[in-house]
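Input record, target 12 of the design panel.
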């Protein structure tokens, strides 16, 4: 969310797109952290599935945002 906020404060569409891409990368990082959390039993399989689906949906929304911004 912070990456998107920073991008929206920038002056050019290219900068806005860059920070949205950074946000997508952060979503990928979050997915990797979720796998670790599950493997270390910090979260159970049901929580993992819910969180993974939420992060995937966020990535889809961000990708759509980038496509519309072209």
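The sequence produced for target 12 reads:
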């Amino acid at each position: 969310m912070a990456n998107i906020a920073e991008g929206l404060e920038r002056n050019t569409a290219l900068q806005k797109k860059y920070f949205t891409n950074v946000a997508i990368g952060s979503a990928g990082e979050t997915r990797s952290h979720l796998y670790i959390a599950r493997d270390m039993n910090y979260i159970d399989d049901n929580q993992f599935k819910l969180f993974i689906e939420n992060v995937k949906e966020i990535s889809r929304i961000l990708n759509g945002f980038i496509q519309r911004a072209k």
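The mean pLDDT is 92.
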